[in-house]
Amino acid sequence: MDHFKYSNGTLQCEGTEAAAIAEELGTPTYVYSKAAFTDHFRSISDAFAPLRPKVCYSIKSCHNLHILRLLRGLGAAFDAVSAGEVRRALEAGANPQDIVFAGVGKTEAEMAFAIERNVGCFNVETPTELETLSRLATEFNREVRAALRVNPDVDAGTHPYTTTGKDENKFGIEMGQARELYAQYAHHPLLKLAGVHLHIGSPVNSAEPYVEMITKALTLIDELLAKNIYINLLNIGGGYGADYEGGESPTAAQYADAIIPLVKDRGLAIIMEPGRSISANAGILICRTTSVKQTKTKSFVITDGAMTDLIRPALYQAYHFAWPVAPGEAFTPPHRGKSLRLDGTSLVDIVGPVCESSDFLGKDRWLPPINKGDLIAVFSAGAYGAVMSSQYNSRPRAAEVLVDGESVQLIRRRETYDDLVAAEREV
Ligand code: LLP
Fold it and tell me: 349 - beta bridge partners?
């Protein structure tokens, strides 16, 4: 179910006109749909229900406290990757036991903080971290649950910057070394190392790499069992796809059909860490056109939204469908995605005001005529959008709103000049 739809020639988010939000709150603004978050969370938890997984929403994909509260209300647990994210989850009311703490470079202070707060499980990425964690467990005299993030050397087929499960990546511990570490820590009185964590990249637009990584993990678990080392937890990570270009990502049910038979009768507790499959298509970014410009070779639509608001196109050459918010009936898009090319459209680059040639939101797009003042919606922006924004060029971060039917809740105010300089003024 799509909660961002054109009706009478103008974009609606649920029962609210996107243009009205921009008029009231200005631009650029992130607009999220409560119904979309809800549907996406339920579709993944329902699809995997036979495994009774703990669905740990990956906070990093969209970390707004109001979104975390919404998801917690739906039954989500949380995947955190820093003390900051652990604190967000706690502030959103999460039970500490429902937080898994991942991250390749946790500091000792972060680990101590998470032990004090009694987080549910640490996903450990290096032998050094494991040593520190066991020492802290002893110092705090607390039982600490941990999983090793195992690097299965499986190609997720993603952009190289978001591939994490190959030998050459910094993430996880290779199989052979993991085997030794499980044996070494098998009898630690306080550090309970009884889990395997996997996450090979994102977005993984096929179930096949999951099958491969899980099969390797199950072999490891069996080998350990043969040595009387018991693993009772398998965390199958995140990375499930979302449609950006149109129809490229498997459905939750397709992932589930491939994964469930592998682990169903293994008696393992299952954790999943979906982020973008829940958040990406639950948010759009609305920008306003500030200028248009024609050169000998190119047409530019310049908007007040920039790489500082949405860096994915600049960083990964990621595709986000972009379209005017109020194109009229004649240019109402029949569907979204890369293949759309309507009569009367022309080829433009949608760019921002930042002083970098990488500052674009869309390149070579067939768009209807655009004039100064026109609003443009950039779709599938709910994941790794607002969270990756910056203040480069002294640009205050965008506002964020959560729409629920006809009601619009401001969930992050637009930053001000004072926000930009506050940490400098106070010293
Ligand atoms: N679990 C772990 C250990 C992760 O590192 C990540 C994402 C996830 C779960 C959630 O992955 P998701 O389900 O959201 O795909 N900035 C990049 C994505 C980086 C992903 C980092 N890790 C992008 O904009 O595509």
Answer: 300
How many Å apart are CA 67 and CA 113, to the nearest integer? 24
Specify the DSSP class assigned to residue 198. Answer: -
Q: Kindly give, in sequence order, each residue whose CB lies less than 8 Å from that of residue 49, ignoring residues fewer than 6 positions away.
A: none
Q: Which of 394, 373, 370 is nearest to 26 (CA)?
A: 373
Write out the two tokens for 46: 């329902």
Asked whether 149 lines ligand 1 (CB < 6 A), one says no
Burial class (CB in 10 A: 0-12, 13-18, 19+), 127: middle
List pLDDT tens digits, range 308-356: 999 999 999 999 999 999 999 999 999 999 989 999 999 999 999 999 9
Q: Whose CA is nearest to atom 19 of ligand 1?
A: 162
CA of 198 to the centre of ligand 1 (A): 12
Q: Is the CB of 384 under 6 A from ligand 1?
A: yes
CA of 345 to the centre of ligand 1 (A): 35
* pTM of the full structure: 0.97
Q: Per-residue confidence at 212, pLDDT binned at 50, 70, 90? A: very high
Which residues, other chains included, contact 168 with Cβ-Cβ below 8 Å and sequence gap of 6+?
A: none
CA-based angle 342:346:348, to the nearest 5? 125
**Bridge partners for 363 per DSSP:** none
**Which residues have a Cβ under 8 Å from the Cβ of 125 and sit 6 or more positions away?**
102, 103, 104, 105, 106, 149, 171, 172, 173
